[in-house]
Structure formats: structure tokens, C-alpha cells
Amino acid sequence: MLDSFKPLETRCAGCAVLGTVQDLEGLVRHSRVDAGVVAIGDNWTRGRIVAELRAAVPEFPFVNAIHPSAQIARDAVLGPGTVVMAGAVVNPGCRVGEFCIVNTRASLDHDCEMDDYSSLGPGAVTGGCVQIGAYSAVAIGCVVVEEIRIGKHTVVGAGATVLGDLPEHVLAYGTPARTVRARGAGDPYLGELSRRK
After folding, report:
1. How far is CA 37 from CA 91, 151, 182, in A?
2. pTM of the predicted model, to two decimals?
3. CA–CA distance, 56 with 23 (Å, rounded to integer)
4. Do 95 and 77 meet the contact criterion of CB atoms below 8 Å apart?
5. What percent of the chain clears pLDDT 70, i.e. is strictly above it?
6. CATH 1.10.3860.10 fits 65-182, yes or no
7. What is the Rg, in whole angstroms, of the alpha carbon atoms belonging to the chain?
8. What is the pLDDT of residues 6-54, one digit of tens each?
9. Which residues are catalytic?
10. How far from the centroid of its chain's Cα atoms is residue 98's Cα?
11. How far apart are alpha carbons 135 and 188 in whole angstroms?
């Protein structure tokens, strides 16, 4: 495990910290690490760290982390670095991009698309043919009805019900979900989604 904030050899989730992001090249060279996944919940931060890792070691392979209780359709496509958590469902015809998160008990219905670095929160569900833009986050407990398009860098707050398309770069919440403000790429959102401002 690489972590820029924990001391060397600290244990986290059963794994020892081997160094920081800057140590990856040496760890690969000495055969201590041969593949990885980036376990960061914030979509923008995850993208930034992946870019740093790819710049340091361009050939480094990223793997998917899929919980054994997740259900993934045979024809679903998952990009590298994607994490699918316990009890999640990815149905037929879905395409999940690179470094996405399909969180605990989330359900992505048929023919949906999640662009790179997007995330579906715990217990969030979509109808069929939904498109979630790059770096967008659909938070815990959201419901997104069928054939909805959510623009890139958009955040849908906890428990929202999305009945219509949402543009890029907005925060939306409520039932039905409404845009409450604009947001920039990289604006923090984790921990703020349930606090209505």
C-alpha cells in the first residue's frame, strides 16, 4: 500500500504501507509491487493521483477490485482501476469507465454508462440507459430514473431523486433533484453531500 500520510510499515486494512506515491517506481523496479488499484473516494483526487502514478511509471498496470458478492453481467465492460463493492450490481450492456467506483449495494441498470472517474454511492440505483459524466458523483441513496444524462463534474447529493437531465459542473439535490449551485472541477464534496446549504 502507498500512502503519503501514514508512516512506513503502518498497517491499514491488513496491508503495510510501503511508501508514498513517489516511491512507486523503486518498488516496481525491486519487484515489491506489480499492479495496483487507487483506493481514494474523491473522484478528482483519485484522478490526480492516477495521473501522478502514470507519469512516474507509465507501464504500471491497474487492476479492478471486485467484491465476491458483487453481481456483474457477463457483457458488462469495466475499465481498469474500477472498484465494485459488496452487493453492487452492474447489469447487462453497461460500460463502466476507468477508475470508477460502484459502491456498496449500488445498482447500475441495463445499458448504463459511467465515464472515467465517476462514482455511484452506497445504495444508489439507476434505471436503464443512464449516462453519468466523467468525475461526477451520484451520492448515497440516490435514485436516477431511466434515460437520464448527468453531465461531467456534477454531484448529486444524498437521497436525491433525479427525474431530469443534469448539466455539467453543478451540485443538485432534493426530490425531485434540482440544481442548487455551480461547482468547479475538483471542488470538494465528500462529507458535504448530506448537509443542505
Report:
1. 23, 25, 31
2. 0.90
3. 9
4. yes
5. 96
6. no
7. 17
8. 778 778 777 788 877 787 888 887 777 788 899 999 999 999 999 999 9
9. 110
10. 9
11. 12
